[in-house]
Amino acid sequence: MGRITLEGVQKSFGPVHIIKGADLDIPDGAFVVFVGPSGCGKTTLLRLIAGLEDVSGGRILIDGNNVVDVPPAKRGLSMVFQSYALYPHMSVRGNIAFGLKMAGLPKAEINRKVEAAAATLNLTPYLDRKPRELSGGQRQRVAIGRAIVREPKAFLFDEPLSNLDAALRVQMRLEVTRLQKQLGTTAIYVTHDQVEAMTMADKIVVLNAGRIEQYGSPIELYQRPANLFVAGFIGSPKMNLITGAEADKHNATTIGVRPEHIGIVEAGNEGWSGKVVIAEHLGSDTFLYVDAGALGTLTVRVVGEKRLNAGDAVMLRPEPSRIYRFDANGNSMFA
Amino acid sequence: MATRQTQLLARALMSPAVILLFIWMIVPLALTVYFSTLHYSLLDPGSESFVGLENFEYFLTDPAFLASLQNTLVLVGSVLLLTIGLGIPLAILLDQPVIGRNVIRLMVIAPFFVMPTVSALVWKNLLMHPVSGLFAWIATSLGMTPIDWFTDAPLLAVIFIVAWQWLPFATLILLTALQSLDEEQKEAAEMDGAGALSRFIYLTLPHLARPITVVILIETIFLLTVFAEIFVTTGGGPGLQTTNIAFLVYSQALIQFDVGTASAGGLVAVVIANIVAFFLVRIVGRNLEA
Amino acid sequence: MARKVTGRHVVISTAGAWIAGFVIFFPILWMVLASFKTELEAFATPPSFLFFHWTTENYVTVQERSDYLHHALNSLIVAGGSTLIAMLIAIPAAWSMAFSPTKRTKDILLWMLSTKMMPPVGVLVPIYLIYKNLGLLDTRTGLVFILCLGNLPIVIWMLFTYFKEIPKDILEAARMDGATIGRELIYVLTPMAIPGLASTLLLNLILAWNEAFWTLNLSTLEAAPLTTFIASYSSPEGLFWARLSAASTLAIAPILIIGWFSQKQLVRGLTFGAVK
């Protein structure tokens, strides 16, 4: 079991409030991603759950028990660090076994578990190597092996993929997701990369300036962002935000349209006229950056190849049902 | 970034060192201050009496003080000039593609590990002896008159000995710094059309500014207290020609047994060293942030 | 990374570096050669460089006449003892400052450094008198104590800069893995810190071995380490060059070897981490 509940959790370093009261309920077995810009407090929140920092207020419940005064090792969690934090002087085997050794398990059982973990992660040939003899991806796997071998109530991941190159990151992303589903263990995963968040999470927590902006499934966040911040943060390329007369027409302070919800129509139709500033041709998609006069520069995503180039005049038409409306406080107004 | 528990432990672990160093700093220094206000001679025990600042007046107006202050400054300044002036080209030379660099490094660093009494005596006798020393033989072979170092130029002789001991230190630090100079920066400068000389002036020297400062400050702290080299070669003489502040205080204390004046002199040395230390601590402290 | 280098460049810089290295090393070489000469040859003009009558009798004489081994043992005890005690005090202090820094840690470190900058001559008088009253003059205990205190700031600083380089993540990982502070020390911190501990130990051994202010002033015969012993050759009647050279060679040989091994750490150790 691994249900984690936060009740009014606060953290301040001196006068600086890093976490300004977080309430959250993470069901057992869920893969929850904390996402937000750097400095939003997502890593601090994770470290509070881990017990590596003391909370300044509030309660953290693991399976119903308040753990704020329980030392990290006794919380039954394991953590994968951004730097991997492998013990450089120990072999892969030693690294994975360390937690079990500390727990005082018999040797035979430790060996059995380490080897099972190594087999799951394709690390068996490397068990007797030192971390420095491994590639980045292998080190990453060792760090994960160290986490799973203890059969924790939950895994905590602190930006674990940020030190890998792009191709490896995609591969490890899949592996981590697959492994978590296979083990069915609760996972909390911190990242600043919203693509990682969208692809891996059952539920996403969007954090900004020490507050939880929204908590929901990836599609909920995409379709019904609670406010301007979430709308702008989730989705790539970013949502176009328009203020002024065009927003007034929709009785909103700001309206937002995602690049994929803007179509290109024949000249003479109703719509927003503009001029292409830059066209990025990816083959599968075409991204257009269009100067639309008073509306500002809009990003438009067209599926497939669109033969448009810089300087071409275009007529844009947003899908009316896909226009998001925000009030003066930046909160969403849903119809 | 730690929990309360670990912070308490941290404080407990730190206290022995802090307490010891505090005592080590404060007790002798307080005693020195106290003695410096007394008329106190070991030759005349029981005659201690409070004399206020008389010892300072005596020490500071003693012609020996001015002479030794001057000797101290000349010694420190000359050794700094020699070690840095020779250290920079030497470090640059060792930074070149040189065959057998590791062996050369060992030879260059060696003098630093020689205890001061040994280097002083080897230089004084085997090298600088006016008749049988190697330098005398070289001078004679070249048709020159050998220099009687410790009679005609005693301070210069001491300067050479001390500079020989500290040249490795300067070289090694500058070499380490040179090796940390980004290769791509050099290449960028080359692409920008900078010749070897411009690269040295605009790239290497600014890069060395900080290590040079560090060398100057650290050497100064040690050079202000040069003692053994003088003790075994000249004993401060002839006359006062090689007496520096450290040696003057020593002779006042343990040769003339004048505790009061020696204490006053010791405090003067502390003040001088603190002026240097002030700058060094600031530089090192700035480095702590990084 | 590889830059193109002309052959001529290599030849010139190699020749220059070898000449410079040889000149700097020469006094030591000359001393070692003299230690194998007879007193007459050591004193002879013109000097003989290699073609002299090689002898080891000076080494025998040094031991027989002046009990060299006694002073070598003193050096070993004083340098080794003071370094070990300093390490014992410094390790916990540096550990806590590196891993649980507070707002005052920086100030404490700089204050410790500043105690090293106090010129010893400033406290010579009280230390001498205290030692005289406590009967510590010319004792190994007295020297161990003073050298330990004198080098403590450097030891703490060096260890601090090494500990600082151990990633904090790793200690946190150990804590997540359930290691208590004691086990964290034994299984994680110590193995990772061993290179730093070793070089700190070596550098301070060198500094203590070569220390020549307190040893000269606080020891005369019984506790005299090699620094003081060699200084006794400065008296005019002690001008036996070959013997001086033999004693000197013996005195510097072990430390020269240790020094050569630890030269890389020397820079950061002596600059308090300001140059790496």
UniProtKB/TrEMBL annotation, chain C:
Residues 72-262 form the ABC transmembrane type-1 domain. It is a multi-pass membrane protein. InterPro entries: BP-dep_ABC_trans_perm (IPR050901), MetI-like (IPR000515), MetI-like_sf (IPR035906). PROSITE patterns: ABC_TM1. CDD domains: TM_PBP2. It comes from the Bacteria. Keywords: Cell membrane, Membrane, Transmembrane, Transmembrane helix, Transport. The chain crosses the membrane at residues 12-33, 76-96, 108-131, 143-163, 184-209, 240-261. It is found in: Cell membrane. Belongs to the binding-protein-dependent transport system permease family. This is Carbohydrate ABC transporter permease.
